[in-house]
C-alpha cells in the first residue's frame, strides 16, 4: 500500500465535491478529489449528435451508477428481508465526474424558508399533537437569511434562469409569490414557457392559483459565470435528465466549475478511486485520511489529509460513515444513534391531460429545468389544520423533452393497451396531444424508516451493502392525494378532453420498479442536537470534527422542491465557515 | 506541400517572443529579472510547440516538418553545449534568430520566421538569450539528422539572400512614424515577434512573404495561402472577408481567449492564441488591435455585410427547400441557429463571418468535415468542440450546406460544388478529437 | 506540418479505457452503423433459428403492422434485440447479479439470477414448449395472429408458468426490448427507415427546437433525422 498526503480529501466529484474543491483551493489548500467513476467530458462523451441517443442515455443509463459493482438492498418494513436493488429503476444515482450533477435535469430552487424549521413551525401553528406518532420532524438549525448569500452565489455559478418575485423587499418581477426575498436578480432571465406550460399557466391563474416559470439551471442565454466558464443557451432539445447537455447550457460541475478548477495546480482529480473507508486515529475522534482502491490497478492506496469532505451521493455518504465508524449508527428499536436516521425521499405522481387533436404539445420540445409551477400547496403555504397532514408539493408542467422509448414503454396512459392492437392509436394520441402535470412532494421522516448495513449482501469490494428500510406512510399518501385533487380544476380550465389523475394509493408500498425521483435525502442530517443529527449546522461531523458531510444526506425531511439548489447552497455555506472559522482553528465549530 | 509546411511552422514557431517586448519596466541589468522575464515569455510563447515535443524535455527539439523530399526537425535549443545552443554567444544567437544563420554559418530553413524576427529589438533579443542560457535546463540529446537532399543548406542561403531583410533595414522600417505610440507598439508586435504575416500575408513563387510590413503594400495581412488546409483571413479592414466589423475589444478578446462575439479560433490560430497571444498584457493586445484597425482594406470596393432575415424566416416557418437548407436544419442549426447568429462565444455566428465569406471555401469545408476544437484558455477555461461531419455527410451534402451558409443571412459568397468538396477531402485535417485537446469540459 | 503525436487509434483506445463500460467515439459509432447498413439481410448472432422465428413473431404481435405503418418485424426490432444480447446489458453486466437470490414481493424488483440473454433463451424455449403442448405441436411462430396474441396476453398476466422464468417477466422483457428496437436510433439496428419516429412525429437527433419552443400548438414541421444523418 502506498501512502501520500494532501491538505484536503474530497470524496466524490459531483456538485458538492466540486464546490468544496473550488472553495478550498481558493483558500490555499492542496485538494484531492477521489472519484470512483470515470472522468467525463461533454466534448467527447456528450457531443452532438452522438449523445442524442435515448437508448444509451436514459435507457441503458450511460451516466449512471453501474449496480454490478455496488448497490443497496431495500425492504419496506423492518420485519422483511431486504433484497438487492438489482436494476436501476426507482432512483438513478450518478457515477463519474459530475455525478448526479451531470445527469440532472436542472430545476434549481432555493428553499421554502418554513421548511428549514418545519418542526418549530408546525408546533407553533397546530400544536405538538399535530405531529403523527413515529414522525421524526426536525429543524435544520440554519435560517434562510443565513443561507441567502450562498443561494445567490450558487445561482451565479450555475447561470440560473428565472424570474424573481421580490429583491430586497421590493417586487421585481412575476416570479413565485411564495418564494423568499432575494438579495439580487437571477443571473439570466427565465426560460421561455413551452406551449403546454403556457396552457397550464393560464388555466392555473384562472382557477385562482399563482403560477410562475420555474427557476432553471438551463441557461436561457449565453453566459459566463464568476469562474470565467462559458455556457451556451438551452435550445429546448430535451436531452437534459440522463444526458450531458451538448449545448453546455445545463449547469454541471463539468461545465461550470471543473474547467476553472482543473487549471489550478493545487487541485488533483483522481478517478477510478473507490474509497473504502475514512481512516480514524486510535480514539476515533480524528480522521487521518482515507483508504481507497485504485480500480485500474486494484491496489489499495492510503491518502493522508488534515480534512476529509464526504460529498458523494446522499446514501453513499451514509454508507461511508457506517463503514468508517464515524458517528453512532442509528438503532430504530432503541431510538439511539444518528447515522442512517431520518432517511427520506420524495413523493411524485403524474397526472395527464389530453387536448383536442388540433393542439400539438410537441412533448419532445423541452428543457429539464423549465416549466410552470404553482406553490399554492407546497410547504406551509396553505392551511394544514383541517387537512391533518404535514408537508406539501409544488405542482407543475415540467416538459423536459419526452423521448419515444420512454413514452412507448410507459404506455399511452389511462386504460389504453400497452402493446398490440389499439396501442399505436393511443400512443400517437398521447404523444402528440397530451401533457403531464406532476405533484412533486415532500416526504417526512419516520422512526422506522432508515439506513443501515445489510447483514447478507456485499459489494464487489467485499464491503456490506447499505440497506434501505423505506415505504410510504399514510401522512404522505394523504398529502399527495390532497394536492393532486387540486390539479383537477386546472385540467378542466385548460380544456382537456379527458384527464387521468395520478396519486399514491392508501397502503401502497414503495415500488422499486418504477422511476420516481433521484431525490433521496437524510441519513446524516444536520441539526442542533447531536442526539438527533449526525452533523452540526456547518455540516461538520459531531463525532469527528475534521470530517464534513455535504449533500442531501443533511436534509432532515424530504422537501417538495428539487434538492440541488439546497445542496449547492449548503456546500457554499459549509465551505464559507470552513474557510473563515475552521481553518483558523480546527476543531468543533459547535460545542455538543 | 511546401506552401503548407513553411507558414505553419512559422505560425507555431515564435508567438512567444511577443511577450518579451511587453514585460513592463524590466531592468536590463538585472539577470534574475531577465531570466524570469524570459521564462515568462517562453511559457507564454509557442517556441515550445516546435522546439519541444509533447511529453519531451523543454526545448530539446525534435518536432518534424514533413516536406516532399524528407523531413526537417526543429533543433534542440536548450543550452547544452554539444546538442543545443550552449556554445552560442549572444551575437551568434541574435544572428540565428534575426538573420537565419546558424553558428556554423549554415542557413536555417525559413520554418524559423527570421524574416519577421529581424525586426526584434536588441533588448528583446538580450532577454531571450539570457533566458535560454540561464533559465532553461540543458538537454544532451541530439536532434534527428536531416537527410539528403534537405541536408543541403546552400539553397537556403540563396533564399535568404533574396528574401530575408537585413536587421538594419528591418529596424529602420520599425522606426517609421505612426499616429501614436500604441499603434507603433502594435506594429512592432504584429510585424516582428508576432510574425502574423507568416500566415496572414500572401506568399510569392519561392514561398517568400510578398511583403513583410504594412509600410510597403496593402497586401500585408490581406490573407494568406492555406495552412494545414485552412485559409488565413485578411486581418485588414476589408468588408465581409476581413476584420472591418470587429471592434478593438473584439480583437482583444479574440487574442486573449480564442473567442469573441464574432467568431472562434480554429486550426493553427488556436495554437497561436493558446501558446502566445493569450499571455500578452491587455495593453499589448489593445496595441495590436489598434494597429490592425489602422490598416485600410486591401479591397476597398467590397460592400459592408448587412443581415437579411429571409433565410431564417423560411426555416422558422418550416420551409427548408432552399439548396442546403435542410442539411443545415438537420445538423447545424442546433448550435449556429436558423438565423446564423450562433450563440457566441460558445458557438460562433456564421452570418457575416469573414471565414464563411472568404473567396476560398476551404476553411468552411474543412471545419464542416473535420470539426474543430477550441481548448480552454487561462481567461476562458471552457473548451468547445464542433463535431466532424466528414463521415456523416456526403460531398454533395457538404457542398449544399456550405453553399447555403455562404449565401444566407446577407452572406454573398459563391456557391460550392461537390467536386470542389471532394477535392478538398484530400487536404482535410484529421478529424477533431483524434488528438485530445486538454482541458475539456 | 506537425506530426500527429497520437493516432486516432490510441486516442480511442485511451477513451475506451477511461470511459464507462459502453462508450463510443464518433468514429466507432460510424463504423458500426455503416457496417450494419451494408450488411444486407440480417443473420442473428445470438438467437438460433427456432428462437429467431419466435422472436420475430412475438415482436410483430407486440408492435403490429397496421394502418399506422410497419410493425416491429420490418422495423428491425428482432435485429435490435439480437444485437443487444452481446452488449454489457445483454450479459447482465449492468445489474447487480450476486446472490443469494431470494423470493421477494414484486414491488421490490427483479430478483432472478438470469441476465437478459438467459431470460430469452429459457423463456422462449419454455413458451414455445407450452405452445406446442396446447396447439397440436405447432410452435408460437406457426400460430395465427389471434392465437399468438392470446398466448402473449396469458404470459403478460402470469397465467402461464414458464419454469425458471415467470411468464410476466419474460413478456415484459420482450415488450420493453421490442419497443426499444422500434424507437431507438437506427444505429442500434431497429427503427428502420426511421419509421418508428415518423409514427410519433419525433424529430430524432436534430435536437434543436429554439424556433419551436412555443408556436401555439402547431405541429412541428420537419421529419426525423438520425445520428448518422439518415432522414425520413
From TrEMBL, chain A:
<feature type="domain" description="Glucose-methanol-choline oxidoreductase C-terminal">
    <location>
        <begin position="452"/>
        <end position="571"/>
    </location>
</feature>
<dbReference type="Pfam" id="PF00732">
    <property type="entry name" value="GMC_oxred_N"/>
</dbReference>
<feature type="domain" description="FAD-binding">
    <location>
        <begin position="5"/>
        <end position="43"/>
    </location>
</feature>
<feature type="domain" description="Glucose-methanol-choline oxidoreductase N-terminal">
    <location>
        <begin position="231"/>
        <end position="345"/>
    </location>
</feature>
<dbReference type="InterPro" id="IPR000172">
    <property type="entry name" value="GMC_OxRdtase_N"/>
</dbReference>
<dbReference type="InterPro" id="IPR002938">
    <property type="entry name" value="FAD-bd"/>
</dbReference>
<comment type="similarity">
    <text>Belongs to the GMC oxidoreductase family.</text>
</comment>
<dbReference type="InterPro" id="IPR007867">
    <property type="entry name" value="GMC_OxRtase_C"/>
</dbReference>
<protein>
    <submittedName>
        <fullName>GMC family oxidoreductase</fullName>
    </submittedName>
</protein>
<dbReference type="GO" id="GO:0016614">
    <property type="term" value="F:oxidoreductase activity, acting on CH-OH group of donors"/>
</dbReference>
<dbReference type="Pfam" id="PF01494">
    <property type="entry name" value="FAD_binding_3"/>
</dbReference>
<dbReference type="GO" id="GO:0071949">
    <property type="term" value="F:FAD binding"/>
</dbReference>
<dbReference type="Pfam" id="PF05199">
    <property type="entry name" value="GMC_oxred_C"/>
</dbReference>
<keyword id="KW-0560">Oxidoreductase</keyword>
<keyword id="KW-0285">Flavoprotein</keyword>
<keyword id="KW-0274">FAD</keyword>
<dbReference type="InterPro" id="IPR036188">
    <property type="entry name" value="FAD/NAD-bd_sf"/>
</dbReference>
UniProtKB/TrEMBL annotation, chain B:
<dbReference type="InterPro" id="IPR009056">
    <property type="entry name" value="Cyt_c-like_dom"/>
</dbReference>
<keyword id="KW-0479">Metal-binding</keyword>
<feature type="domain" description="Cytochrome c">
    <location>
        <begin position="181"/>
        <end position="296"/>
    </location>
</feature>
<dbReference type="GO" id="GO:0020037">
    <property type="term" value="F:heme binding"/>
</dbReference>
<dbReference type="Pfam" id="PF00034">
    <property type="entry name" value="Cytochrom_C"/>
</dbReference>
<keyword id="KW-0732">Signal</keyword>
<feature type="domain" description="Cytochrome c">
    <location>
        <begin position="319"/>
        <end position="409"/>
    </location>
</feature>
<keyword id="KW-0249">Electron transport</keyword>
<dbReference type="InterPro" id="IPR014353">
    <property type="entry name" value="Membr-bd_ADH_cyt_c"/>
</dbReference>
<dbReference type="GO" id="GO:0005506">
    <property type="term" value="F:iron ion binding"/>
</dbReference>
<protein>
    <submittedName>
        <fullName>C-type cytochrome</fullName>
    </submittedName>
</protein>
<keyword id="KW-0408">Iron</keyword>
<dbReference type="GO" id="GO:0016614">
    <property type="term" value="F:oxidoreductase activity, acting on CH-OH group of donors"/>
</dbReference>
<dbReference type="InterPro" id="IPR051459">
    <property type="entry name" value="Cytochrome_c-type_DH"/>
</dbReference>
<feature type="binding site" description="covalent">
    <location>
        <position position="199"/>
    </location>
    <ligand>
        <name>heme c 2</name>
    </ligand>
</feature>
<feature type="binding site" description="axial binding residue">
    <location>
        <position position="200"/>
    </location>
    <ligand>
        <name>heme c 2</name>
    </ligand>
</feature>
<feature type="binding site" description="axial binding residue">
    <location>
        <position position="51"/>
    </location>
    <ligand>
        <name>heme c 1</name>
    </ligand>
</feature>
<keyword id="KW-0679">Respiratory chain</keyword>
<feature type="binding site" description="covalent">
    <location>
        <position position="196"/>
    </location>
    <ligand>
        <name>heme c 2</name>
    </ligand>
</feature>
<keyword id="KW-0677">Repeat</keyword>
<dbReference type="GO" id="GO:0005886">
    <property type="term" value="C:plasma membrane"/>
</dbReference>
<feature type="binding site" description="axial binding residue">
    <location>
        <position position="336"/>
    </location>
    <ligand>
        <name>heme c 3</name>
    </ligand>
</feature>
Amino acid at each position: 500500500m502506498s501512502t501520500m498526503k494532501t491538505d484536503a480529501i474530497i470524496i466524490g466529484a459531483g456538485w458538492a465535491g466540486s464546490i468544496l474543491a473550488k472553495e478550498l483551493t481558493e483558500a490555499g489548500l492542496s485538494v484531492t478529489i477521489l472519484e470512483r467513476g470515470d472522468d467525463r467530458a461533454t466534448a467527447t462523451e456528450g457531443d452532438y449528435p452522438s449523445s442524442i441517443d435515448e437508448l444509451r442515455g436514459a435507457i441503458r443509463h450511460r451516466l449512471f451508477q453501474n449496480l454490478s459493482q455496488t448497490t443497496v438492498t431495500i425492504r419496506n418494513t423492518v420485519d422483511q428481508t431486504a433484497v438487492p436493488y438489482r436494476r436501476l429503476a426507482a432512483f438513478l444515482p450518478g457515477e463519474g465526474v459530475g455525478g448526479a450533477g451531470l445527469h440532472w435535469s436542472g430545476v434549481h430552487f432555493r428553499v421554502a424558508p418554513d421548511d428549514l424549521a418545519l418542526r418549530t413551525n408546525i408546533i407553533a401553528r397546530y400544536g405538538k399533537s399535530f405531529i403523527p406518532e413515529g414522525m421524526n420532524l426536525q429543524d435544520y438549525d440554519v435560517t434562510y437569511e443565513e443561507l441567502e448569500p450562498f443561494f445567490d452565489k450558487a445561482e451565479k455559478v450555475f447561470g440560473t434562469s428565472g424570474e424573481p418575485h421580490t429583491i430586497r423587499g421590493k417586487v421585481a418581477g412575476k416570479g413565485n409569490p411564495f418564494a423568499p426575498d432575494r438579495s439580487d436578480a437571477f443571473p439570466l432571465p427565465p426560460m421561455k414557457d413551452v406551449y403546454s406550460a403556457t396552457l397550464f399557466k393560464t388555466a392555473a391563474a384562472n382557477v385562482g392559483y399563482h403560477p410562475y416559470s420555474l427557476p432553471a439551471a438551463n441557461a436561457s442565454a449565453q453566459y459566463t459565470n464568476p469562474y470565467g466558464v462559458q455556457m451556451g443557451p438551452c435550445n429546448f432539445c430535451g436531452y437534459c435528465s440522463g444526458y450531458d447537455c451538448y449545448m453546455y447550457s445545463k449547469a454541471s460541475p463539468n461545465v461550470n466549475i471543473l474547467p476553472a478548477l482543473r487549471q489550478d495546480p493545487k487541485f488533483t482529480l483522481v478517478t477510478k478511486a473507490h474509497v473504502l473507508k475514512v481512516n480514524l486515529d486510535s480514539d476515533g475522534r480524528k480522521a487521518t485520511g482515507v483508504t481507497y482502491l485504485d480500480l485500474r490497478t486494484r491496489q489499495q492506496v492510503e491518502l493522508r489529509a488534515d480534512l476529509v469532505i464526504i460529498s458523494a451521493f446522499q446514501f453513499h455518504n451514509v454508507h461511508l460513515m457506517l463503514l468508517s465508524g464515524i458517528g453512532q449508527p442509528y438503532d430504530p428499536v432503541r431510538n439511539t444513534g444518528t447515522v442512517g436516521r431520518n432517511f427520506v425521499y420524495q413523493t411524485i405522481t403524474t397526472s395527464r391531460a389530453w387536448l383536442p387533436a388540433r393542439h400539438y404539445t410537441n412533448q419532445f420540445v423541452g428543457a429539464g429545468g423549465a416549466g410552470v409551477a404553482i406553490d399554492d400547496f407546497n410547504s406551509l403555504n396553505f392551511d394544514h389544520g383541517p387537512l391533518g397532514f404535514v408537508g406539501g408539493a409544488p405542482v407543475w408542467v415540467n416538459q423536459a423533452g419526452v423521448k419515444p422509448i420512454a413514452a412507448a414503454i410507459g404506455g399511452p396512459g389511462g386504460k389504453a393497451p400497452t402493446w398490440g392492437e389499439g396501442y399505436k392509436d393511443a400512443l400517437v394520441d398521447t404523444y402528440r396531444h397530451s401533457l403531464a402535470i406532476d405533484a412533486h412532494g415532500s416526504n417526512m421522516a419516520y422512526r422506522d424508516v432508515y439506513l443501515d448495513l445489510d447483514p447478507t449482501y456485499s459489494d464487489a469490494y467485499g464491503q456490506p451493502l447499505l440497506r434501505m428500510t423505506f415505504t410510504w406512510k399514510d401522512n404522505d399518501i394523504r398529502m399527495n392525494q390532497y394536492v393532486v385533487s387540486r390539479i383537477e380544476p386546472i385540467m378542466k380550465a385548460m380544456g382537456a378532453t379527458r384527464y387521468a389523475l395520478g396519486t399514491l394509493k392508501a397502503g401502497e408500498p414503495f415500488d422499486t420498479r418504477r422511476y420516481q425521483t433521484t431525490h433521496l435525502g437524510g441519513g446524516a442530517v444536520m441539526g442542533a442536537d447531536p442526539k438527533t443529527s449526525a452533523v452540526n449546522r456547518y455540516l461538520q461531523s459531531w463525532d469527528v470534527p475534521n470530517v464534513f458531510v455535504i449533500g442531501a444526506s443533511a436534509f432532515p425531511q424530504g422537501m417538495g422542491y428539487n434538492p440541488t439548489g439546497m445542496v449547492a447552497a449548503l456546500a457554499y455555506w459549509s465551505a464559507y465557515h470552513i474557510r473563515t472559522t475552521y481553518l483558523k482553528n480546527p476543531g468543533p465549530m459547535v460545542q455538543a | 506541400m511546401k506552401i503548407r509546411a513553411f507558414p505553419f511552422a512559422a505560425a507555431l514557431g515564435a508567438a512567444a517572443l511577443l511577450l518579451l517586448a511587453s514585460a513592463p519596466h524590466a531592468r536590463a541589468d538585472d539577470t534574475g529579472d531577465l531570466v524570469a522575464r524570459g521564462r515568462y515569455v517562453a511559457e507564454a510563447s509557442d517556441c515550445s510547440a516546435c522546439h519541444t515535443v509533447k511529453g519531451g524535455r523543454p526545448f530539446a527539439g525534435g518536432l518534424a516538418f514533413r516536406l516532399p523530399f524528407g523531413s526537417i526537425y526543429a533543433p534542440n535549443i536548450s543550452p547544452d553545449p554539444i546538442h543545443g545552443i550552449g556554445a552560442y554567444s549572444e551575437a551568434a544567437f541574435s544572428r540565428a534568430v534575426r538573420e537565419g544563420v546558424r553558428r556554423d554559418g549554415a542557413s536555417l530553413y525559413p520554418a524559423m520566421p527570421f524574416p519577421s524576427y529581424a525586426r526584434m529589438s536588441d533588448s528583446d533579443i538580450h532577454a531571450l538569450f539570457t533566458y535560454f542560457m540561464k533559465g532553461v535546463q540543458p538537454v544532451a540529446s541530439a536532434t534527428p539528422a536531416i537527410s539528403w537532399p534537405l541536408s543541403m543548406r546552400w539553397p537556403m542561403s540563396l533564399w535568404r539572400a533574396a528574401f530575408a531583410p537585413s536587421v538594419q533595414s528591418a529596424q529602420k522600417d520599425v522606426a517609421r512614424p505612426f499616429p501614436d505610440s500604441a499603434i507603433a507598439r502594435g506594429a512592432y508586435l504584429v510585424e516582428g515577434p508576432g510574425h502574423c504575416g507568416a500566415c496572414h500575408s500572401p506568399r510569392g513563387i519561392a514561398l517568400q512573404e510578398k511583403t513583410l510590413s504594412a509600410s510597403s503594400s496593402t497586401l500585408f495581412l490581406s490573407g494568406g495561402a492555406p495552412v494545414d488546409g485552412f485559409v488565413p483571413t485578411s486581418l485588414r479592414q476589408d468588408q465581409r472577408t476581413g476584420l472591418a466589423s470587429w471592434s478593438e475589444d473584439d480583437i482583444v478578446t479574440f487574442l486573449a481567449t480564442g473567442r469573441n462575439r464574432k467568431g472562434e479560433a480554429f486550426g493553427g490560430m488556436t495554437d497561436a492564441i493558446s501558446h502566445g497571444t493569450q499571455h500578452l498584457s491587455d495593453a499589448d493586445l489593445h496595441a495590436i488591435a489598434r494597429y490592425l484597425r489602422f490598416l485600410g482594406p486591401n479591397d476597398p470596393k467590397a460592400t459592408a455585410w448587412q443581415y437579411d432575415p429571409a433565410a431564417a424566416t423560411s426555416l422558422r416557418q418550416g420551409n427548408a427547400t432552399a439548396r442546403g437548407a435542410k442539411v443545415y436544419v438537420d445538423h447545424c442549426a442546433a448550435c449556429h441557429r436558423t438565423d446564423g447568429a450562433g450563440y457566441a462565444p460558445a458557438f460562433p455566428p456564421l452570418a457575416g463571418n469573414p471565414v464563411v465569406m472568404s473567396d476560398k471555401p476551404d476553411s468552411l469545408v474543412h471545419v464542416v468535415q473535420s470539426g474543430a476544437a477550441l481548448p480552454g484558455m487561462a481567461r476562458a477555461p471552457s473548451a468547445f468542440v464542433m463535431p466532424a461531419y466528414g463521415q456523416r455527410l456526403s460531398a454533395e451534402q457538404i457542398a449544399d450546406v456550405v453553399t447555403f451558409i455562404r449565401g444566407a443571412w446577407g452572406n454573398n459568397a459563391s456557391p460550392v460544388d461537390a467536386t470542389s468538396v471532394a477535392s478538398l477531402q484530400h487536404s482535410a485535417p484529421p478529424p477533431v478529437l483524434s488528438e485530445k485537446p486538454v482541458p475539456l469540459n | 506540418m506537425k506530426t500527429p503525436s497520437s493516432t486516432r487509434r490510441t486516442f480511442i483506445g485511451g477513451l475506451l479505457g477511461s470511459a464507462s463500460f459502453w462508450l463510443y467515439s464518433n468514429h466507432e459509432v460510424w463504423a458500426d452503423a455503416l457496417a450494419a447498413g451494408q450488411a444486407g439481410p440480417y443473420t442473428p448472432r445470438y438467437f438460433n433459428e427456432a428462437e429467431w422465428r419466435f422472436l420475430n413473431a412475438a415482436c410483430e404481435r407486440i408492435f403490429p403492422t397496421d394502418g399506422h405503418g410497419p410493425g416491429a418485424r420490418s422495423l428491425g426490432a428482432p435485429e435490435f434485440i439480437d444485437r443487444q444480447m452481446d452488449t454489457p446489458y445483454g450479459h447482465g453486466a449492468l445489474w447487480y447479479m450476486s446472490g443469494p437470490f431470494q423470493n421477494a414481493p414484486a414491488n421490490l424488483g427483479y430478483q432472478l439470477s438470469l441476465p437478459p440473454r438467459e431470460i430469452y433463451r429459457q423463456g422462449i424455449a419454455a413458451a414455445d414448449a407450452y405452445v406446442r403442448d396446447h396447439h397440436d405441436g405447432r410452435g408460437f411462430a406457426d400460430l395465427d395472429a389471434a392465437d399468438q396474441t392470446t398466448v402473449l396476453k396469458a404470459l403478460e398476466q402470469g397465467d402461464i408458468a414458464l419454469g425458471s422464468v415467470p411468464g410476466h417477466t419474460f413478456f415484459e422483457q420482450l415488450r420493453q426490448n421490442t419497443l426499444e428496437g422500434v424507437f431507438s436510433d437506427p444505429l442500434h439496428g431497429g427503427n428502420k427507415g426511421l419509421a418508428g419516429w415518423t409514427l410519433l412525429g419525433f424529430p430524432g437527433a436534430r435536437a434543436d427546437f429554439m424556433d419551436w419552443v412555443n408556436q401555439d400548438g402547431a405541429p412541428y414541421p420537419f421529419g426525423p433525422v438520425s445520428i448518422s444523418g439518415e432522414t425520413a
